[in-house]
Amino acid sequence: MTTEPWLSVSEAARAIGITRQAVHQRIQAGTIDARKEPTTRTARGYFWAVNPASVEVIRTFRDARLAYAESMQQARTEPVPA
């Protein structure tokens, strides 16, 4: 079993297709699994590392919602047989 490296907030945002602020909001809400990693590169002394499995779950649900919405749109535009 290979473990993927955890993602930065920016990488997670790009992968999901949302803003960095939205990723931070999801971290606060607990809908994205993330952990604080120590660093000397920021004034806070840490950065958020996002679990790639959490990102994949969100992408899967988003893709399913989009596919469902598209199928419903097609169903509305197809003519009803007489």
Bin the strand percentage: 5-15%
Helix content: 40-55%
Rounded to an integer in angstroms, the radius of gyration calculated over CA atoms is 18 Å
Name of the level-1 CATH class? Mainly Alpha
Order of strands in the sheet with the most strands?
A: 1-3-2
Which spans of ≥5 residues are poorly predicted at pLDDT below 50?
Answer: none
Q: What CATH architecture label applies?
A: Orthogonal Bundle
Secondary structure: number of strands: 3
Q: Globular, elongated, flat, extended or rod-shaped: what is the shape?
A: elongated
Please give the domain count: 1
In the CATH scheme, what's the topology name?
A: Multidrug-efflux Transporter Regulator, Chain: A, Domain 2
Q: Structural class, from helix and strand content?
A: alpha+beta
Distance between the termini: 55 Å
Main beta sheet: 3 strands, antiparallel
- In round numbers, the mean pLDDT is 91
Pattern of helices and strands: EHHEEH
By DSSP (H or I, 4+ residues per run), the number of helices equals 3
